[in-house]
Amino acid sequence: MKLSYAVLASALFISACSDAPQAPTTRIDQLQQASPPPEMVVKPDFAKYEIVDEKKKAFVAFLKPGVDYINGLIEKARVRLTQLSDTASPTKDDLAFLAKVAELFNLPLPESGADKAWFDEALKRVDVIPSDLVLSQAAKESGWGTSRFAREGNNYFGQWCYTSGCGMVPSARSQGKTHEVAAFKDAYQSVRAYFLNVNRNKAYSSLRDIRADLRKQGKPITGVALSNGLGSYSERGQAYVDEVQGMIRYNEKYWSQG
Q1: Higher-confidence residue: 17 or 95?
Q2: Per-residue confidence (pLDDT) for residue 113, from 0 to 100
Q3: What pLDDT band is residue 14 in, cutting at 50, 70 and 90?
Q4: Across the strands, what pairs with 167?
Q5: Short-list 31, 37, 25, CA closest to 61
Q6: What is the pLDDT of residue 24?
Q7: In the record, which residues are listed under signal peptide (predicted)?
Q8: Comparing C-alpha atoms, which of 119, 38, 28 is closest to residue 78?
Q9: Sheet of 167-168, strand order
Q10: Residue 193 in contact with residue 8, Cβ under 8 Å?
Q11: Which residues contact 46 (CB under 8 A, 6 or more apart)?
Q12: Is the pLDDT of residue 26 over 50?
């Protein structure tokens, strides 16, 4: 089912701040946000909403701040990566930044240091995911926040883990299977894990290729376009992709709120 989930709950996003002397520098190891944005501190009981419109609005209002925050971090990281790709003499902080990118995005640095091929691939992975795609998948996988895994484990994307006790055992797990549905401290950790999975998992390399091609062509990066690279997210393949695209289009007014 869906994503192959590695040990991501403790993974940290990276600082992409400049080392410019006129401004305080946020070191790469200081941006370790363990707490969710204020809007995500109190999780609504989505099952109590009797009016579907109100449930959807509440769902987006709850999750979107985390999505926007992470996309903001990624955008800043891309700027720094782009700058460093043209830098002949990286500083100690620059090298630490590149090492953290390599670690978080499963992209080992060459022994001789970051080269053009490494930067090209890094910029494929360190890139935004449109909020309409993230939220559509979250809504689909969690039943708009009402599933047991979302309520009890803060898992909104169906992520799996493979260590005994790492999450919750699904009731429909086939005999002989050992996976569990990952449990997170809060919903924000689930969102971060989703971003890391999609941006570094081999299964979604086609999504990253689509995104990179859109950038090269100067076209908008849209959720509908990127969803075509999610054929491996579900055993249902293209049928799953079609349903996600339908959700994006049908619920457009909710994704754009806030």
Answers
A1: 95
A2: 92
A3: very low
A4: 182
A5: 37
A6: 30
A7: 1-20
A8: 119
A9: 160-161, 180-182, 167-168
A10: yes
A11: 55, 58, 59, 144, 145, 146
A12: no
DSSP assignment of 75-94 equals HHHHHHHHHHTT-SS--HHH
- If you search the block for the tokens 């998948």, which residue do you land on? 137
Name 67's Cβ contacts closer than 8 Å, sequence gap at least 6. Answer: 129, 131, 134, 135, 191
* Cβ partners under 8 Å of residue 101, min gap 6: 14, 77, 81, 107, 122, 126
> Which of 155, 223, 231 lies closest to 189 in space, CA to CA?
155
Residue 95 tokens read as 């090298």
Query: Which pair of tokens denotes residue 56?
Result: 């959807």
* Residue 115, both tokens: 């080269």
Per-residue pLDDT band for 161 (boundaries 50, 70, 90) equals confident
Start-to-end Cα distance in the chain: 32
Decide if 11 contacts 158 (C-beta within 8 A): no
In whole angstroms, give the CA distance from residue 189 to residue 227: 22
Which amino acid is located at 153 in the chain? G
How many whole angstroms separate alpha carbon 1 and alpha carbon 232?
Answer: 9
Q: Among residues 141, 145, 193, 150, which one has the least CA distance to residue 4?
A: 193
Residue 6 to residues 146, 165, 238, 244, Cα–Cα distance (Å): 24, 14, 24, 24
pLDDT the model gives residue 258: 67
Q: Retrieve residue 217's tokens.
A: 């062509």
Convert the pLDDT of each residue in 98-144 to its tens digit. 999 999 999 999 999 999 999 999 999 999 999 999 999 999 999 99
Give the integer Cα–Cα distance in Å for 38 and 58: 14
